[in-house]
Amino acid sequence: MSLTKETKNTLSWSDTVELIDNLRVDEVGLKERVASLATRSIKKDSKLQALNYIVTMCDLTTLEGEDTEGKIGQMTAKAIRPDPSNIEVPSVAAVCVYPALVSKAKEMTKNSNVKVASVSSYFPSGQAPLESKILDTQFAIDQGADEIDIVINRKAFFEGDYRKMYDEIVALKEVCSSVHLKTILEVGELRTYENIKKASLISLAAGSDFIKTSTGKISDGSSREACYLMAKSVWDYKEVTGFKAGIKVAGGIRDSKDAIRYLVIVNEELGSDWLNPDYFRFGASSLVDDVLKQIKKLKTNAYQSGYYFPRG
Amino acid sequence: MNTWEYAESIESSSIVSIEKKYGIFFDGQFQSPNSKKYLKTISPSTEEVLSSVALGNKSDIDSAVESAKSGLKVWSKLSGTQRAKYLFKLARLIQERSREFAVLESLDGGKPIKESRDFDLPQVAANFFYFAGWADKLDISWNTKGLKPYGIVGQIIPWNFPLLMLSWKVAPALATGNVVILKPAESTPLTALLFAELCQEVGLPPGVFNLVTGDGTTGAALVQHPDVSKIAFTGSTAVGKYIQNETADRDIGLTLELGGKAANIVFNDAAIDQAVEGVVNGIFFNQGHVCCAGSRLVLQEDIHDEFVSKLEKRMQSLRVGNPLDKNTDIGAINSKEQLDKISSLVNEGIAEGGSIFQTDCDLPTDGYWFRPTLFTNAQPSYKISREEIFGPVLTTLTFRTPEEAIEISNNTEYGLSAGIWTEKGSKILWAADRLQAGVIWANTFNKFDPSSPFGGYKESGFGREGGRHGLLSYLKVQS
Amino acid sequence: MNEIKKTYKNYVGGKYLRSESGKTFRIALKSEFYEVPLTSRKDVRDAVVAAKKGFTEWQKLTPYNRTQVLYRLSEMLEGNIETYQQILEDSGLSKSKAKEDTKQALDSLIWYAGIADKWEQMTGNLNPVAGEYFNISHQESLGIVFTLNSDENSLNQLLLNILPSLVTGCSVISFNGDNSIMALKLAEDINNSDLPAGALNILSGKFDQIIDDVSNHVEINAMAIYKQLPSTDKKIIRENASKSLKRIFINPPVSGLESLLPFIETKTVWHPKGR
């Protein structure tokens, strides 16, 4: 998996201002387009192909106050080998943990292709000074994280201080210069489509490698509308700069049917270049189990039970 | 690098059972046509023959009219509530057999199953429910006591939305106390024939609904019959003018819903991505076989390149193919004749100087198909900018000022619909006041509802269908 | 007496409930007697909570959906029409009058079902103001309506006391007295009709026990009094209502477009027209 970029993907603040000027999105029209994409009927080998994509795109996630090294051990084992009864099922893309668990996760995945992603920047709220955010990010990287998931400063965004929001991401990208940076928008708080588009473009312009929908910590997680909007932003950004950014959707994607609908959006709006873990991820915990069930069903033609697959 | 191709997901046609031969429907039964002649109806996506249907002649129209007269005697004695109950029952049966009707519609006409299932059939049922609800409250529909039904109504419908057009005609006519003789399009009779079966099932009094299949001669015979008190026609402007001319010597009710060359105006302050969707929907929905299709993109010059580039990219993801594949967006062209018309007009467009863009999708070998097509560098004087193509072909014209946009949009004998794309509310209202069109869609397109009146200005026809206003097409003022 | 004794309960928030007070009162029909809930102040409070939620859900449906729901109610009613006829006969009506009443009731229900997606076209409109403005009067639902139903033994009258407010998109708390059996039975068909929980709530009791609680409850937006009340009661209601400007309708029309008018709030919106 190569995540190095040839081009510097940051825009100056004045170029960013131009990019986010006059963003217009019609809510009803957008919802209709997303609903129409959801009518795609994905069957047979195209379904199996999608299910395999999804497994390789998953970041198995645990972000709980009660996480321990033991818990990380279980999850990493599952990440490396999701279905012990079927060696054809590939490993997931990464595990996603809090900074305190990064070194354990790194130790448990060292003989595999599974990456270790860490949240930081005072995840999930981001309500702290920039200095604290830089500190916890640097700590995670020092512990061995390959990828960092930060949150945007929503306080700054809602106060209209877009410059501050931008500067913070630029500063954090500097800390993350050798690792892959995902920027979480928290679309459930942004709510309006203009806000989501604006936050997407600012995050991209400030140097993010990926934009991510949600922390998974509030009840309004990801939505297909947000994913569509972010895909539009990624495409527009590519048209302006040549840089291809990635998208991660997280929070509330519980079953394969829904995950496949997300893939349809990516396929038809961005194209097959984005259908791999370098450009699209699912942040999930229980999604993988449903995908495994579906893969087994396609092979055996029988509905499965969860008890065939290991806990993570 | 892999691509992700969607496997076929075919809606089974085993739900449908088509007879080898159909007669005409009057006196509540299917009967052999007096003409003793039949027409073949084919599936335009495979060219396979689906069935033979009667080719009704003048004598068959006479039988239908006599049947309608008896039907009227019974129907006019029923209360509005009783009429409502028949229509509610029909609505329910349509809902229950929706899948069957949808598959039949896609087979007979070529439209994608996704459309017939998700758009046509729900609208059909909704129309019957909506008008059923008017049948018992006509006295309060318009604040006047003098409204009465016409009596025997002749209705001629087109092939682009066969069952939907049937519902737009039959439901209000019956709700208002009229009886109907329906002549469906030559190439799409099958869903109307299945509807006639439903009328039998709900016990609709014989003669209230009559069906005579056939071709242009059948329609002419219906229009010419002296005992028909009202004609409602949806189809081409040329035939509409013929009907108005043909009935000039009679005091007859007439509503015409004809062709269009609608302008879809995109201002530079539109929500561009949604405008692209709206433009695509406006012309490629139903293969462009839509009277109110947004067939002229009237685009503000300063966003031309950005918009066209997004439009072309979006067009590439349109899937053309088997109408019964659930992933098909664009189905077959309805007939060989229509395909030839489209091709000829497109060739003229190229000859006149328009730049053509077509998507590079694969097309099946059998059947009638046309790729989604976009013309740029076209002038308002080109044939492709003025004539109704009735296919998946969009012509782009540019404007610089709002007044110019209005002028270009109105510069046509048609006036059925128009689209306005801008995020500025006052501009929408300003433009809507000035556009000569009977239906105006702002920041959306191709939206229909039984409660929303539909119909044209100028040579796109007169009279309205749907809504409270639509009742007036079937009620005349008693002087 | 039946072998299995039927208990009729209040219908609130899509659930069948006894009065929280545990109290009942007796309704004796010809063949059978029933102990039905004696609705208390707290029951009214709970019904309002349910009606608030029901209002939100009922409003989410398109007008077309609301027609469908009411049409489905008519299907349920038609299936049980003999039960209603029996209740009417047990309440003292002749067989033929009972039959006629239930037939009228179904026709009324069909009439109201079919107007749910039409009334706004007949009561709202564009206003031709002087100036470059688009001006439209949009009709909205009043909110939560408490109906005090007529005490006639009639299914038709019962429906005519409930449907006008329901059809305009309001949620309804429908209160019945000595003729409650019919209404509490209706609750069962309502429950089968896809009507969102809380959109229509049915209570039985003695109105004079809760007259102050109902007319003082600020979250009840309107009261429609279909029953004949003495002037002293009307005065109490109006005085209490004045504290929060509750809308009070005494003996409103029970048929035609006029029956809907009380339950509509008109909202007029202006927007300029310009480039």
UniProtKB/TrEMBL annotation, chain A:
GO biological process terms, semicolon-separated: carbohydrate catabolic process; deoxyribonucleotide catabolic process
Q: Does the keyword Lyase apply?
A: yes
User: Catalytic activity, per the record?
Assistant: 2-deoxy-D-ribose 5-phosphate = D-glyceraldehyde 3-phosphate + acetaldehyde
Keywords in alphabetical order: Lyase, Schiff base
Top EC group: lyase
So which domain of life are we looking at?
Answer: Bacteria
InterPro entries noted in UniProt: Aldolase_TIM (IPR013785), DeoC (IPR011343), DeoC/FbaB/LacD_aldolase (IPR002915)
GO CC terms: cytoplasm
State the Gene Ontology terms under molecular function.
Answer: deoxyribose-phosphate aldolase activity
- Return the SMART domains for the record: DeoC
Q: What is its EC number?
A: 4.1.2.4
Which family does the record assign?
Answer: Belongs to the DeoC/FbaB aldolase family. DeoC type 2 subfamily.
What name does the UniProt record give this protein?
Answer: Deoxyribose-phosphate aldolase
Automatic annotation (TrEMBL), chain C:
Q: Which residues form the Aldehyde dehydrogenase domain?
A: 29-248
From what superkingdom does this record's organism come? Bacteria
Transmembrane segments annotated in the record for this chain:
none
* Keyword Repressor carried by entry: no
Q: Care to name a GO molecular-function term for this sequence?
A: oxidoreductase activity
Key word Oxidoreductase present: yes
InterPro entries in the record, alphabetically? Ald_DH/histidinol_DH, Ald_DH_N, Aldehyde_DH_dom
Keyword annotations of the record: Oxidoreductase
Gene3D superfamilies from the UniProt entry: Aldehyde Dehydrogenase, Chain A, domain 1
Q: Which Pfam families match?
A: Aldedh
Q: What is this protein called?
A: NAD-dependent aldehyde dehydrogenases
Please tell me the species this chain comes from: Candidatus Actinomarina minuta
